[in-house]
Amino acid sequence: MALVVLLAAFACLLPAAAAGQSAPGQARIVGGKAVAPPDAPSTVRRVIAAANRIATKPYRYGGGHAKFEDSAYDCSGAVSYALRGGGLIDAPRPSGGLMSWGQRGPGQWITVYANGGHAYLMVAGLRFDTGYRDRRAARQGVKPGRGPRWGYARSTSGFVARHPASGSPALDPRD
Questions:
Q1: What local confidence, expressed as pLDDT, does residue 136 receive?
Q2: 0.85 surpassed by pTM
Q3: pLDDT tens across 12-66, in order?
Q4: Dihedral angle, C-alpha 130, 38, 170, 48, nearest 10 °
Q5: 91, exposed or middle or buried, with CB in 10 Å at 0-12, 13-18, 19+?
Q6: Is residue 3 part of a domain?
Q7: Which letter, b or e, does each residue of 125-153 get, where b requires 16 or more Cβ atoms within 10 Å of its Cβ?
Q8: Count of CB atoms within 10 A of residue 2's CB?
Q9: String of b and e for 19-38 (b: at least 16 CB within 10 Å)?
Q10: Which residues contact 31 (CB under 8 A, 6 or more apart)?
Q11: Domain of residue 60, residue span
Q12: How confident is the model at residue 139 (pLDDT cuts 50, 70, 90)?
């Protein structure tokens, strides 16, 4: 009995994310798709919804660059597609082009990490990436294989961090 009481008391101290709920500002993965937190601005919800539409597509070098709607995506094509969903980009950009998109540094909700050979997106605490896979995401329904998938944070070493420009009408804090 004492053990049950102790466990119940400890459970109250766990963050909401550990209980299967989103912490404020933190998206979660359910069945391989991202679920935006309730406090996310509408732009963030649109970026997540766009990324979810391609989150099971295969990888193809150059995919998503000739046109946003494609049958497969490379890293920067997938990032561009998601950003376009939020009204944050007008045309697909290669990884090198994403290195100068927006403003320097990480954003509150959305950050693009890019270098000359790879790009990925962090949105509401989740990573949208065509490469690096993590076991934690796989346990939450993320399909294996190459192509755009949701995951959790990875090392940012060797990447430039960029975020949407301040004053962007797409990121109105009143959303």
A1: 75
A2: no
A3: 333 333 434 445 689 999 999 999 999 999 999 999 999 999 999 999 999 999 9
A4: 20
A5: exposed
A6: no
A7: bbbbbbbebbeebeeeebeeeebbbbbbe
A8: 6
A9: eeebeeebbbbeebbbbbbe
A10: 140, 141
A11: 24-163
A12: confident
pLDDT exceeds cutoff 60 at 11: no
Residue pair 152/140 in contact by the 8 Å Cβ criterion: no
Distance set, CA 147 to CA 60, 85, 142, 159 (Å):
8, 18, 11, 20
Alpha-carbon distance 25 to 110, whole Å?
11
> What tokens does 171 get?
């990121």
Which tokens hold the place of 134? 């993590």
Task: Give the CATH number of the domain where residue 104 resides.
Answer: 3.90.1720.10
- Distance separating the N- and C-terminal Cα atoms of the chain: 47
Residue 122 domain-assigned (yes or no): yes
Q: Does some domain include residue 140?
A: yes
Query: How many domains are there within the chain?
Result: 1
Check if the beta carbon of residue 79 is closer than 8 Å to that of residue 112: yes
